[in-house]
Specification:
The chain is α/β, with parallel strands linked by helices and 191 residues long. It has helices spanning 13-22, 36-45, 84-92, 98-108, 124-136, 154-169, 184-190, and strands spanning 2-7, 29-34, 56-58, 76-82, 112-117, 139-140. Strand 2 (29-34), helix 2 and strand 3 (56-58) form a beta-alpha-beta unit. Helix 3 (84-92) packs across helix 5 (124-136). The N and C termini lie far apart (35 Å).
Amino acid sequence: MKLVIAATGASGAIYLQRLLAQIDCGAHEIHLVMSAPAKAVAKQELDDFKIPSNVLHHSENDMNVPFVSGSARFDAMVIVPCSMATLGRIASGSSDSALLRAADVFLKERRKLIVVPRETPWNLIHARNVVTLLEAGAIVLPAIPSFYSRPGSVTEVVDTVVWRILDQIGLPSAHTYRWGEESVSAKRKKN
């Protein structure tokens, strides 16, 4: 698969870190775009933010990257975390950065765009922008963890959202907890 993964300045850099860790970046072509605020948040929230060596890292201002053109074939784009400011810019059709232009291209070409907002609560403007993106064909996947698997750490809580992202991309993880399956903590107790 050819994927664009982007991050903006919302809190939740751990979601990006765990997503990159769970994709086989050697088997897939991964392009990463991080806004300046996303880089600052990652530095503040994570002691050691790591980008896998085979991920192609691009500047948010580089409009010469392949994924800003509809003629370039890509399978999916994920924006994780996605600030409500970025979500609103996408909903308005703004394309003044590589990240925003790519999101616009994915929508116009009817390619999979997955937006992972982490901010809460929402105001009416946020809700209307979400509806606009849904109507345009985006998948809005708020970073709302599940607890069916009885996660025992922050990382395990985060992974419940990452697994949903991977499912939407079409790259499910073998570690994904599925409803009705034995919980991770129950498996741990047996071992």
